[in-house]
Design a protein that fits this description.
Rossmann fold, 10 strands, cytoplasm (chains A, B), transcription regulation (chains A, B), homodimer, repressor (chains A, B), Redox-sensing transcriptional repressor Rex (chains A, B), 3-stranded antiparallel β-sheet, DNA-binding transcription factor activity (chains A, B), DNA-binding
Chain lengths: ~250, ~250
DNA sequence: CCGACTTTGTGCACACGTTCACAAGCGCTA
DNA sequence: TAGCGCTTGTGAACGTGTGCACAAAGTCGG
């Protein structure tokens, strides 16, 4: 176990009978998993699911880490956050890992998703979102365009954004996906928040302001492109640099 | 942020007096900017562009950081990576910052982009990609479906994936966007790489294997959803925990 | 039953990124 | 020109995440 702050170290033998402290530490553990590790666990899960379908029953950290594109030590540390489910000298049982990762990621429950903004991207998401992580049924779609209201997209009828509070409550939406034009995003976000949605995936290129208890993740195409652009530029500069400094091309 | 390959280690602190190291440090600096800072610079740039359009000429780190949703010290440090363009006691000139960030991000050149896989998502990207970061013209589209070849999407004719090498070379594509089904992604990736594309934005939920000199960023919807799911689960557990431990609801 | 071999789980050290806190620097006013 | 108040730029402390290397713990063959 990694040394945390002085506080939650005594989890070992659970000394003092403090109220609410006798929990199996599984829940405490969940809080301690680094976000980066969570992201990787999701990747491992996908790889493992693929292996399970190919009837692979056991895999070593070395093999799995190669398939997931990470260092094997990191993989083992990531897995250690969720418990000790490997067998030394052997490896991990694929099925066990799948189950445990799904448990930690909360994939044993279904998470109802809504998509707001049924443009090009929203369309794609409505058709796409339910399928890859099989625990995310899209259960509501919203737009402002009157021509779209009531139209079925991917099997779901589009509702008006004004109905977000009612529809989200009815269908117990827990994750909201924003795919609106930038100016509309904050307004939509506010409505989702007041509808009780606690997690938001934002595709609109704006910085959303939300209360502390709401989790926002953003997917920003422009930013991704610009990061790549930065690398292109860096490479070009390096090449120019190497050139100037009289580097000889081998061969 | 999110998971990247464990590779990007060679970004380390510029070591000692190696030959060709005496450059004006602008280029050296570029190498030293942390990836996380680059991502934020792109966000600042967008905010700043918005401000410029509203004829704001000057802004303090405090204001800008609030608009970008970060801490002001972090913002100043991020900006310090690209140089000292602020005036103490006053703030930053919006236009200067815009220019400098664009320079660092390599946005002064146009980066030709191709999209592979013209399904729902590819469609959305073809229409979307050029516009938000104004320096990214989509100049080629590819698919395997014969019915799509030659069809114009967002003003560009779709070519066959087999023509990737030729078309990418002709149109000087520097960034490849993969929006194919998972099984096709690695093959497409290989073709892009052999066509000389050095940066890839991958929307397919697979771990791509590429040579070291190729930069890959991935956007993985399923992973994002699962991270949110994790947070939903964590919250639920916390609530349950608080409940069990006999917490009294105030009021 | 033992010893050799394999692979996990993790303590430790290091690197990276974030935050704090303050000196340095600039403009404004008198 | 000197003094004051404001904001930048950054050294240094801190916390988090990564990677190494090895002990612990299991399997397997003899």
């Amino acid at each position: 176990m990694g040394a945390r702050r002085g506080e939650d170290v005594e989890v070992v033998t659970a000394p003092g009978r403090l109220p609410g402290n006798d929990e199996p530490a599984v829940r405490e553990r969940a809080r301690a998993i680094p976000e980066a590790a969570v992201a990787r666990l999701a990747v491992y899960l996908r790889v493992l699911s693929g292996l399970a379908e190919q009837d692979v029953t056991t895999i070593s950290s070395e093999e799995l880490s190669a398939a997931a594109g990470v260092n094997s030590a990191k993989l083992r540390k990531d897995l250690s956050y969720i418990g000790s489910y490997g067998t030394r000298g052997v490896g991990y049982e694929v099925e066990v890992l799948v189950d445990q990762i799904e448990r930690i990621l909360g994939l044993t429950r279904k998470h109802s998703v809504c998509v707001v903004g049924i443009g090009n991207l929203g369309h794609a998401l409505a058709n796409y979102a339910g399928f890859p992580g099989r625990g995310f049924p899209v259960s509501a779609l919203f737009d402002v365009d009157d021509d779209l209201i009531g139209v079925p997209v991917g099997g779901i009828l589009v509702s008006h954004v004004d109905d977000i509070p009612r529809v989200c409550a009815e269908r117990e939406v827990s994750i909201g996906v924003i795919a609106t034009p930038p100016p509309a995003a904050q307004g939509v976000c506010d409505r989702l928040v007041s509808a009780g949605v606690q997690c938001i995936l934002n595709f609109a290129p704006v910085v959303l302001q939300v209360p502390d208890h709401v989790e926002v993740r953003k997917v920003d195409l422009a930013v991704e492109m610009q990061i790549l652009s930065f690398h292109v530029a860096r490479r070009a500069d390096e090449a120019a640099n190497a050139d100037e400094s009289g580097m000889v091309v081998p061969g």
